[in-house]
Amino acid sequence: MLLKIPLITTLLFVVVACQQYPAEPYLQLSGETMGTTWSVVVRSANADNAAGLKQQLQQQLDHINALMSTYDPKSEVSRFNNQTSTDWFTVSEATLQVVELAQEVSELTAGAFDITVAPLVELWGFGATDRSRVPPSADQVREVLAGVGYEQLHLRRHPAAISKKIPGLRIDLSAIAKGYAVDVLAAHLDQQGMDSYLVEVGGEMKMAGQRPDGTPWRIAIERPLDHIREVATVFPLTDTALATSGNYRNFYEIEGERYVHTIDPVSGSPIQHQLASATVLDPSCARADALATALMVMGEKRGQQFSEEHRIAAHFLIHNKTETSSYSSPFFLVLLEKEKP
User: Fold this and answer.
1) Which residue, of 69, 174, 255, 300, is most buried by count of CB atoms within 10 Å of its CB?
2) What are the C-alpha distances in Å from 115 to residues 62, 283, 295, 320?
3) What are the E-state strand segments in 78-195?
């Protein structure tokens, strides 16, 4: 599955305030992909080609899903996961590009982001396979953890290929593929000469130019509430990508203990801190997607320090018992300042 969080837990959305976009020259397109939905709002001089443009975008998404899905047994990722050989496995340039970026973020974050974490996610009851949500024993965690680690995954650029050092190593691109899909759709619109758009796949976004009313796109981040969708804050943005990772909807409780879906690849256990969501701005939506996940693993204190040291544009929502506080990194504030008229 190429879905990091179920559709109902999408943490970002466009604030339209009941405003209807004009039929000309903006187009609104949408569809389904990767177990979630996608949408595009774009300024186009050729409104008659809406159906053709939608078909082009859907084909791009279908191709990505066919390469990177863990649900499709014929996908590149599934076939790589199912083999036990440690020989080089030929992949497409697209898959190699995503894996290479994932490995770079893993190195940067000291393993807080790790595409080999899937077996741990399944062990804790959050994976694709049906499993009773019963916390595993410490021995079970140690056993699975021994087969996890981005250092055990290698890539080769020419010709494009990846290999596993551990025969049982598996990868899952869920926490980066939606962001990559956003980048691909945005690049397609750029190539078509379209300079004002908002692309969204499963809540991850990239925007350029302006809204139909001539103002920056207004993106809302949800308040971290379990069963209610409510806006926490709204940011005016353009010419950037944005991704958010959060924990407050995909979890289960046993005897008063909450277990969330974000697993720390280093400890092998669900994270335990007060950070409710992390939002990242970056020119690349794929990179923003991966970094948002990494910051969620790090938690509020380590994540804030990391974003300051590495000039990451990040915004955090933090649980404080019954209240929620927020923190924006210095670089995040710099980018917002640029949006002011």
Assistant:
1) 174
2) 21, 21, 15, 30
3) 89-90, 153-156, 161-164
179, containing H or E segment: helix 174-191
Sign of CA dihedral 116, 121, 124, 127: negative
> Residue 106 sits in which domain range?
67-174
Flag whether 257 is in a domain.
Answer: no
Largest Cα–Cα distance of the chain, in whole Å? Answer: 61
What dihedral angle (degrees, nearest 10) is formed by the CA atoms of 11, 279, 203, 65? -130
What is the rounded distance in angstroms from the CA atom of residue 12 to the CA atom of residue 144?
33
Tell me which DSSP letter residue 263 carries: B
Pairing mode, if any, of strands 197-201 and 231-237?
Answer: unpaired
CATH number, domain at 113?
A: 1.10.3980.10
Q: Which pTM value belongs to this model?
A: 0.89
State whether residue 206 is helix, strand or coil.
strand
Q: Which helix (H) or strand (E) holds 257?
A: strand 257-260
Q: How far apart are CA 162 and CA 178, in angstroms?
A: 21
Structure-block tokens of residue 217? 């796109």
Angle, helices 174-191 vs 285-298, to 10°: value is 160
For residues 80 and 164, what is the distance between their CA atoms, to the nearest angstrom?
Answer: 9
User: Which phi and psi (to 5°) does residue 170 adopt?
Assistant: -135, 150
Cβ count near 23 (within 10 Å): 9
Residue 51: inside a domain: no
Cis peptide, bond prior to residue 22, ω within 30 of zero: no
Task: Specify whether the CB–CB gap between 194 and 43 falls below 8 A.
Answer: yes
Per-residue pLDDT at 124: 81
Residue 253 lies in a domain: no
pLDDT (mean) for 160-186: 96
The answer to whether residues 266 and 111 touch, using CB atoms and an 8 Å cutoff, is yes
Q: What is the pLDDT of residues 65-99, one digit of tens each?
A: 999 998 899 999 999 999 999 999 999 999 999 99
**Residue 135 phi, psi dihedral angles, 5° rounding:** -55, 135
Non-local (6+) Cβ contacts of 139 within 8 A are: none
